[in-house]
Design goal:
- Pfam families: MctB.
- It is built from nine helices and six strands; from the N terminus they run αβαβαααβαβααβαβ.
- It is an alpha/beta fold and 307 residues long.
- It has two domains: 77 residues; 216 residues, no CATH class.
- Strand 1, helix 2 and strand 2 form a beta-alpha-beta unit.
- Helix 2 packs across helix 9, helix 4 packs parallel to helix 6 and helix 6 packs across helix 7.
- The N and C termini lie far apart (111 Å).
- The model has no long low-confidence stretch (mean pLDDT 86).
Length: 307
């Protein structure tokens, strides 16, 4: 006869067997899971190593290209701007880019008549009305501003009368130029410095892509300023750093607005040796009546102008 004790032992054995089965099953699943995670980790590690290697190779290639351009740059541009004068306007530019371009332009035979450094306040949407009123206030007697009402065009029109010659002659007197630059500096739209002498060509140097809610509008100010300077003289080049050809970069905005900037040449990688050579050659192209889009961005026509 089966006793109660027998039933208790039997039930206990069943539950014990179930527990052991669950444990063994879970242990096997855990091993398989750990094995899969480990394999995935190894695969990701391999991908990281490969991408790191590719990045290092690209950086090394970029350094080599920059070194090569630095060595051959003076030879490539020698004499292309002989007897020409260039004024430099900076807005968000890196000083290293400015100094490198000024040196290379000199090696091309150009005389840089001066540099005017504008501040980020020029692109500040909160100061649009102030800047618009100031351009009208500082306008020399007899000069005219463009019909456009955006601040980029207005500032470009104002500066064009100071920085660029017409038929080889200055458009403003030294006193008028000093008054304009002093007014912009006092209001915080320019930094203190010598007033550039009038030039044949103008180079507008800027940085990369802008950030923030109003980045696109701020980039448009620089693009339209450069376009207006282009219309005021023998030619202008807008050169920015890598990233400047994006939708919130001054070069990108200029390239997107073909109607307003058709005659303006743009360079999107002035922080590289090749980009600096392209910038100087682009000034020559402007002098000859041409225009183009150069650099390494997808929107560029070529790396450098054809010579």
């Amino acid at each position: 006869m089966i006793s109660l004790r027998y039933h208790v032992v039997s039930i206990t054995a069943v539950f014990l067997a179930l527990a052991v089965g669950v444990f063994l099953g879970a242990s096997g699943l855990s091993d398989r899971l750990l094995s899969a995670v480990s394999a995935q980790r190894d695969d990701l590690s391999t991908q990281v190593d490969r991408l790191t290697g590719e990045r290092d190779s690209l950086l090394a290639a970029q350094r080599s290209a920059d070194e090569f351009a630095a060595r051959v740059g003076p030879t490539a541009v020698r004499g292309v701007l002989a007897g020409q004068t260039v004024a430099v306007v900076t807005l968000g530019a890196d000083p290293a880019d400015r100094d490198a371009i000024v040196a290379l332009a000199g090696q091309a035979g150009a005389a840089v008549t001066g540099r005017l450094a504008l501040t980020d306040a020029v692109t500040d949407p909160a100061r649009v009305d102030e800047l618009r009123a100031l351009t009208a206030q500082l306008l020399p007697s007899g000069a005219q501003l463009p019909a456009a009402s955006d601040t980029g065009s207005l500032v470009g029109g104002l500066l064009g009368g100071l920085l660029l010659t017409k038929d080889g002659q200055p458009r403003a007197t030294p006193e008028q130029a000093q008054t304009v630059v002093a007014g912009l500096t006092t209001a915080g739209f320019a930094t203190q410095g010598d007033v550039p002498q009038p030039a044949t060509l103008v180079l507008v140097l800027t940085g990369g892509a802008l950030q923030g809610v109003d980045a696109g509008d701020a980039a448009a100010v620089t693009a339209r300023l450069a376009a207006e300077l282009d219309r005021a003289g023998a030619g202008a080049v807008l050169a920015g750093r890598s990233g400047s050809a994006g939708s919130t970069g001054p070069v990108g905005v200029a390239r997107a607005d073909r109607g307003a900037t058709a005659g303006l040449t743009t360079v999107d990688d002035v922080d590289t040796g090749a980009g600096r050579v392209a910038t100087v050659l682009a000034l020559r192209e402007q002098l000859d009546g041409g225009a183009g889009r150069y650099g390494s961005a997808p929107t560029a026509d070529a790396a450098v102008p054809a010579t």
